[in-house]
């Protein structure tokens, strides 16, 4: 079955789009960013100093993470506790890059991502999204897409998502969560320029529905054996 890898910067819309495409095509869905967020939440909850790379690595290796891959209800639990809302807090959004730039943490979470992707490959297929899925997470995916959008469009989307508005103060408050975080994350993954064989979809001037249709079209043409 099909493995679809989608990468992109913050605010590119990749989570919403990946989820909708997976749902429409009856495939599983994996939000790898949520795994980094759960890892950060776990470390913060245990009072681990995020600048202590070894302590963070040890903690993440022991992370009892359960990822549910149903796109209609993608659950995320740690030790049986539903953390889907907790991991979206501003506190976690602010510190998550500190955990996601730890290379040992990346190796550990990538190993777990591959297990989930391989299990789904033999079943309904999967849409996996993040920052490094097209390049190192699943470089052999059947369809690899880089979803991009202008800085302006990404800031406005995130501001509406977090603050319910995209006026100047909402944009200013969102800047750290989008631009600073992407700059930090870009030190360990390349998600602004498509790697060889990766198709770029620019959603700056597309509606959500149009972007879903564009991505879905790429997956379906691959499934049909069209180039
Ligand atoms: O997409 P998001 O905002 O939920 O991602 C959370 C963090 O995890 C973000 O700092 C980028 C990082 N991340 C990563 O480094 N590699 C991935 N494959 C997915 C997310």
Shape: globular
User: On the 0-100 scale, what is the average pLDDT?
Assistant: 93
Oligomer: single chain
Determine Rg (CA atoms, Å).
Answer: 17 Å
Number of domains: 1
Helix content: 40-55%
| Strand segment tally | 8
Please outline the major beta sheet. 5 strands, parallel
Low-pLDDT residue intervals, each spanning 5 or more residues? none
| CATH class identity | Alpha Beta
Q: What fraction of residues sit in β-strands?
A: 5-15%
* End-to-end Cα distance: 17 Å
CATH superfamily: P-loop containing nucleotide triphosphate hydrolases
How would you describe this protein?
- The protein is built from nine helices and eight strands.
- It has a single domain, classed as Rossmann fold (3-Layer(aba) Sandwich), CATH 3.40.50.
- The two termini are 17 Å apart.
- Helix 1 crosses helix 9 and helix 7 crosses helix 8.
- The protein has 227 residues and is α/β, with parallel strands linked by helices.
- Strands 2-6-1-7-8 form a five-stranded parallel sheet, sandwiched between helices. A three-stranded antiparallel sheet has the order 3-4-5, with helices on one face.
- The protein binds 2'-deoxycytidine-5'-monophosphate (DC).
Summarize the structure.
This protein is an alpha/beta fold and about 230 residues long. The chain has helices at about 15-25, 30-45, 55-60, 90-100, 105-120, 135, 150-165, 170-185, 210-225, and strands at about 5, 30, 65, 75-80, 80, 125-130, 145-150, 200.
